Structure formats: structure tokens, C-alpha cells
Amino acid sequence: MQKTNSNSPSEDWQISDSENLYAINEWGAGYFNISKRGEVQVTVQNNQPSNSVSLLKIVEGMKERGLEMPCILRIENVLDHRIKELNEAFHRAISAVQYQGEYRGVFPIKVNQQCHVIEEIADFGQRFNHGLEAGSKAELIIALSQLRDHNSLIICNGYKDAEFVDLGLYATQLGIHCFFVLETPAELPIILERSKALGITPFIGVRIKSSVIVDGHWNEDSGDRSIFGLSTSALLDVVEQLKDANMIDCLQMLHCHLGSQIPNIRNIRSGVLEACRFYTGLINEGAPMGYLDLGGGLAVDYEGARTNSTHSMNYQLDEYCVNIVETIAECLNPLQITHPTIVTESGRATVAYSSLLLFNILDVRNHEPQPLPAKLKESDHETLHNLFSVNVDVNENNFQECYNDALYYRDEIRELFRRGHLGLRDRALADNITLSVLDKIAKLLKSIERIPPELENLPELLCDIYYGNFSLFQSLPDIWAIEQVFPVMPIHRLDEQPTRQAIIADITCDCDGKIDKFISPQGIRNTLPLHSLNEDEEYYIGVFLVGAYQETLGDLHNLFGDTNVVSVKINPDSSFDFVREFQGDSIADVLSYVEYEPKQMLEQFRRTAEQAVRDKKISASQRQKMLRAFKDSLQGYTYFEREQH
Asked: Can you list the domains of the chain with their CATH numbers?
């Protein structure tokens, strides 16, 4: 591991400077802040007052328990608080608007299917009758096994076969409000047939296509081109089929998913208004209705910018709830229609804040030039001398000319190298001189008012690469897949001024395995300010707000498996308990996922080693040492492990 001595902290660097630099008070939503010791801490509400615990202290507790980096850390109190905040915000809005209906939240299991997450939601959510949404048979089985509160809802979305329908009907027979939401007219005959066969009356909902186009990355979920939901004509066909079957009374829910991570509150109000028109239309068609499910969409402000940009949101939770409740009341009151139970399926906003990825930095590659000789040898090639002269002459009046000349001479030298006219040491010297020129220009740009467009990205091209002990594809797949931006920052040494600009690379063999988009008070930037590494001291980075989708979507790129997972609960006295610990995948685990048999692999390697003994390439004792290493590796962590001294 490359270690560099930390630059002395600026004497005037304050905690507030780090807060501003990483915008933690904006995206942290009160859950994350920086302590006086310069460490990120998580703050939770245990009634009053709030309690804070340093993340570094939790990391030290992990190490004592043999849980190495990387690790997913879950704060159960934060998850509980998110459920509480969502339900209480709707209750406040209902009271303020004098709304006559109720609110029922449901959590979409697809957002985070991990058992201990769903268990916590089901357990804590009981006090609010908070239910679950299932989009597959497997998720319905999770919901049926975890929900113990029969006043909570189970919403069945997705395409449903007979087996799926039977499970939901049995739930209804047990007294659970389990709704089948029709995604396509083809599902209705299956529901009617299985209902008749089992003698169980179903709860039916219909998902309609909203014509409202929402802002944000997932706006294709909305509008006429959405792949989900019934068209208006298909909706009327469903109504007629239910009437013909004398089962129109089963139609009690309208489902309207406006979109995901909706950053603009105006989209939400417009979508709710249209949903109300469909709702009243179904009542006029003779359906009893009673439930209006507005799906997901409640955003997370990953940037902390409070704008309608893709990774932000221009509204607060209370505003979101009031807009929904007020719009429904304003639409239905003049028609004297009973206010329905409002249902939302907020997943991202429920779990994102409760999880973060922690990892250590293994190495740093910087792009600083090596010391140059005072002068070149007379025998060096003329083009090398020309390039060296450019480096000597760089100043604020000629930096553009020097930039052009340096690249020209560098390319000439590379061509000579390709043709065999210059050697390896000449090529290395040329690259180092060029790097010196670019480094000088990058430093000059800090004082230049008008920077030429081609030089604007020069400091980023010269930034450091910090190699993190994690797999982007396993733990942060949305960064690679959809360019999602998460808050990233060191979790300690925040009382020191960071002096390096860097991107973060993972340890996979893939050029896409990097983080090179970071939030800042000025918007998205391409480098992250970090500290130089200290000798014999780990440097820890946290990636925050990763509770939604990341674990579910993670893959086995390079066969890096699931990380260690720790769930902690923070106590009123600011102590904390490790309530759950899950060891990450071993190498044997991930090999079995791709259909290898570890025991068979060990036997095959044993045969190879035994043959080497017969061929007198190794001794029997060496064979034993190799077999032991092979077996130990099978049981080892898939990530980088420090040698224990």
C-alpha cells in the first residue's frame, strides 16, 4: 500500500469547512453530521434528546468482532424513524385538511429484499399498520410470512399466474387485506376463475396509465408509453367483465404509479389530480372503491440541493403529504364522494438513509511528476530538448502555447518510440516532462479568470486515483448502470483540510469500476477532496443513502460477493448494540453461485499437487502447505484482507 505523509492541516480549517465542502448538512437530513473530533456521526431521535454515535467508533467495534472492510452498515433507528416520519406527516396533513379518510403506507419489497430489513419494517411498522407490496410470488411469500398485523395491506403488483392468485386469496381468507392490482386485462380471468374455484371473494385494484409525464431519470415510468397499467378502454373492459361476473363490488382500489424519484412537486399534484378523475369515473361506473394507491415517487435528496434536478427534490415530506391530501379533498368534496384511504408505496425514501457502505483505501496513484534533472544530456534527442525547454518556460502569459507545444513534442517522441528510434527511458523521460508541464499549467489555472475550454478539465485529468476495497458492481451497481450519484466522503480526519483531488476506483478488473461523479454545494463535480494517507493508519470512506436497490441489484463481477453486513441500534445513552451481524460471502460461496462445487475443486487441485509429487516437482510437505492454502482461501473473504502481524 502506498503511504504518503499527511500535509499539515491548515490552522484555520474548521469543522464547518468540511461540512460545507461535503454538503453533509444538506443531504444528511439530520441523520448525519460531523462531530467536534472531525468524525462523521449518525444522529437518531430516541424521543428527546437526540443521540449521536461516531461511525469510526462503530468501525472499531466491527474490527473487534472480526468484521473487516468492506461492510454495509445499517442503522435500525434511522429505518424506524423514516417509517414514523412518513406516517406522521400524512396524519398531520389529514388533520390539517380535515380529510375524512385514512393513510396506509406499504413498503415495496423489491427496493430492499434483505430479510432483516423487511423484518424491521414489519415489526416497527405494526404501530402504523404499515404494509408490504409484492411484485412476485417470492415477494408475496415474504409478505405473508412477515406481516403479523392484519390491518396492514398487502398490494400485489406485477404479472400474476394462478399460483400467485391462490396465495393472495388464501391471505384474504385469513383476514388480510390483500389486493390484486391488475396490470393487464389478461390477469382478470385468472383471478375470477381461481376465486370461483376456491370460493374466496378477492380484493381487486386496477392500475391505470397516467398521462402526466414526470421529471427525473425514471420518467419513462409515466405517460402513455409506460409499460405498466391499463389504458382507458382496457379499464372499461375490466369494469364490464366484473359486472358480467357480478363481482363489481370487488373493485375497491385505483392504483396510479406516477414514477420513481420524482424531483418536482408539481408533477405529483398533477398526477394525483388525474388519478382522482379516474377514481370518480369508476365510482360512477358502479364500483364501490375506497382505496387510492398513488404508488411510489417520493424522492431522496441525494445532492442536498433542494432543486428539481434528477438526484434532488424541490419539496419536503410535509409538503408532499399536504399536496396529495389537499388535491384529493379538493377533487372529491364538490362531488360529495367519500374520501378514500390513501395508499403510497414509498420505498426509496423509507430505506435509503438507513444504510451506508464503508470501505478502506488500499492504495493511491497520483499523477505528480517525478523530479527532473537540472538539464538534459547533450546526447539526448533534439525533440526531448525542445520538450524540456517548454517545461522551463511555463508562465501565466504563455501557458496555452506551452500546453500546445508540450503535447506536440510528446506525440512526436511517442511516434519515434513506436518506430524504434527512441528507447524506453527516453519515452519515460518525455512522459514525465510532459506531466511536469501540465502540472505547472494546472496550478496556474487557479488564478486565471478565463480558462480556455480545452484546459477546463486539466486538473481532473491530473487527479489522484484512490483504490477502495469494494466492488462497484456488487455494492453500488446504480453508479455504473444509471449514473446514480450518492454522497461520498471520508468518515474521519474532517478537522484536517483535505489536500488531494481524487476519483475512487474499486478492486475489480474493469475500467467502469470507479466513482467519478460527486456532489458538492456547487453541483456535481468530477473529483472528490480527500486527505493524504498516513503511515500505518486506515483511511475510511463512506458512501451514504445506499439502502434502496443496491444490494438487490448487485452482481458477482470478478466473483466479488456480498460484503459483511452489520445492523446496529443506538441506545438513549448514545451507546449502541450490534443487533445483527452477517458474514460476507466466502470464495466457496460465490463459486457455488456459478455452479462450481468447492469440495470437488479441492479434490481436483489435490490430484494436481499429488501428480507434482510423483513427478518430483514438489515434496509431500510442500503439497500439504499448498492444499492448506487452497482450502483456507476457499473459506476466505472475497475482498482484500490485510495481513495480520
From this structure: 77-350 (3.20.20.10), 382-458 (1.20.58.930), 588-634 (no CATH)
